[in-house]
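Quick look at the format.
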Amino acid sequence: MKVKTKIVVSSNEWETRVGIIEDGRLVEFYVEREESQVLVGRIYKGKVENVVKGLRGAFVNIGLRKNGFLPLTEIPEFDALEGDEVDTKNESSKPKPRTIALSEGEDILVQVVKDPFAEKGARITSYVSIPGRYLVYFPNAERVGISRRIWDRRERSRLRSIIRRFKDSHAGLIVRTVAEGAKPDELGYEYERLEKTWEDIRSRAEPAKPPAVVYEEPSIGVKLVRDLFKSSVEKVVVDSEKQYQEIYSYLSQVAPKFKRRVELYRGEVPLLEQTGIEAELDRVFQKRLWLKSGGFITVDQTEAMVAIDVNTGRSAENEDPERLILQTNLEAVAEIARQIRLRDLAGLIIIDFIDMEDLKATESVVSELRAQLSGDRAKADYSKMSRFGLLEMTRERTRPGMMFAMFEICPACRGSGRIRSRSEAAMKLERVIISRLSKIRGKRVRILAAPWMTQFLTTDWYDRLSEFARRYELAIDVKIDHELQPADFRLLTESG
């Protein structure tokens, strides 16, 4: 069944937010701000800082806070971009693994393939690529790849034949999924445009002093339209005149038949609110997500991995347990696939499905997950489900997920997801007082604490605190300090 897609672009002078809606549900969301732009696709003239043989890589200064990491061996001459899968098994000019010999202080042209994440610098490659709507151009590769999502053999043969008419021997190309059905002149025009872009990059790079940016991807709105706009996209709604003109102009050049689907929104209600995206974003990071059947899933994300748990929840009264479990798992699969794309979960993902005894039921759940993620542009790999009901999968990471882009570490829990209990904090307070007893006995002790802690000390802990003060000959009073974190406190002493 054909999925109906709408792209919503909301932009102002500080940020651009883009939502991808499929069949009325938000499935992807992107934010680009001036202070935290996506670097993937950007090409730099960098300088090799040091070569580390043990890591089989080099660290290259490209002007960021941390140097980029460049692998030295078996760098693929090209790779699929933006989720296009490439089939080149029938090509005679398969790339061979190559080792790049680098020396410290050497200038090199590199491209970012993964944004910096946590304490890791950007992942970079020396095999640069320039993506267009129909083609991806590789100036230092030679082979042609066709997206695996173009299934028809005749169409694949037609596209390969067209490409060979105009492709220079020094360049490589990927034919992207959206090129299916494209006319020869459309492909030829884009090839010339990409080749011209590469010549411009070389012209800028030659005199540049590293580290220097020599190529930047277009704005996120244009980029996503370039990569996503196909016949299933019914509309692109934009609330910024500038962004509207950029997208309209781009489509006028590369796909004029689609330019009429771009709409400038002039409503009084903010666009993301009007389309329901704001409300969805308020719900997306809830730890517990309820399913229609009464079951629910929980999502726990860390830097190392993501754990997703499926539970029957309120639906546990069904008379047929096996049927209930299968129904809940299948319903959970659809929401899990959406959350993976929406939160941009990546790396190792562990899904704990409800245990099923029927092997066919287990296989149907795994197959459904693959089907639900078939439209995902990030590459994924799946294991078989274990006998404990666990499914391991990996998903490509090219940028920090939404949680890291839109949230920051909580100053109260400092990223642990928990804060010290009030009783534990109160007992710590007592231990601190006892450790200073020789200096403060007979004096007035003022405890400064946050409202949350103050309320606990003056109600639940009141009798114990009074006994504590009597035993150690102290006069204790408790005052609110709104600047303190919930479980923190300060002690002030004065003569009695």
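Next, a different chain entirely:
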Amino acid sequence: MRRDDSFGSQERPAVKTLPPRDSAGPESLQLFLNDIRDTPVLAPEEEVALAQSLRDARERMLACLGRIPWVARELCRQYEERAAAGRVPSLLSEAGTEGDKETIRRAHETLTGLLEDPGLADPTHPGREALLERLAEAFTQFDPATRTLLDWSATIARCRRRASRDAERFGLTPEEMRESASQARRAREDYMDARDLFVKHNLRLVVHLAKPRQHPSIELGDLIQEGVLGLIRAVEKFDERRGFRFSTYAVWWIYQALIRTLQRDSRAVRLPANLYDQIRHLGQAQDRLRTLLGREPREAEVAQDLDLPEPIVAKLMQARVGHTSLDAPVRDDGELSLADALEDDDAVDPVTLLDSEGMRGDLGELLSGLGERDQTILRMRFGLGAAEHCTLQQVGDELGLSRERVRQLEKEALAKLAGEADERGLRELL
């Protein structure tokens, strides 16, 4: 599908998303909301046509990338890394995650075996075309995730004008490189065009789901942005052949993205997702019991309602307590803040401690430029590191030198240290 394609008699402009986060204010958000207000919802037949365009473009990316040895090697490398970490599904598409693990393993073995065949690297080999076809077949059986295909297609497309230089690295001839780059570029552009249309005509769904879930700690624009990411994920995984409307399928992905954002950013101290869900259920149980009992429920009653041990409920209640700013006033006149009331006069000032640590590191770098004997003399004389302050005589006894010789060496070492400090702009340390 090209950029100028449209459905019916109404022309569909390119998708518009929110402005960058650092510039998204109330005015720009309102402009965005006004822009999508009149965007029509796709008709069922339009959804089917767009979904078919997405699937067709994706299949063309698979067919193109599957014949490139470099892509097959990269796929095998990522598969082996993620298999060792137990994260293979993150590399696969929706169909791949539902597929037989044994089929994926056999596809990986086939790709590995084909990549070791010397005929694959020889353009004159009579069986090379058959090897490339088998490579593409195994690649299609593996069925990598759409986002991975888009990344690889972009990498290949960038080599269209420098095919002669990059062909050998990708395991192709210059002619094959140019052809593969053109095919990858066209397939990727068609996929992105169809995906953008899908996203544009469902942005109102994101706003509809985001508005009821606003939080004081999160800007509405940021929440909508996260919902759009969930919408994009839904577009990439949507299969119209199952007979569902896209909005029915996309709601779950958008909702998940919104909830994860609230879990991640709504608190000053981030909580794990499972703990956030438990705290939410705790609040619901407390509200339910408060209405039923007419008073604040006890920990034991909440624990019984949630079927959780009392110690777990106590920890959840403690984690549910909100945070208080150290700048919050503790008196009506506002002259005394919480930080003033909590200040420990006997504690070491963090700024002073940080400066001391930094100066110690800088001084260590200066000393490392001296000889071992000079370093020992200065450390013993000035008590640097674990050493104690020592007299000239004590240093001389330690090194087997006279008191006068130690004095001379100390003077020379300090001169060297001063010169090094001047070069680094650290003279104030001395």
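Residues 208 and 224 are 9 Å apart (CA to CA).

See the schema section for token definitions.
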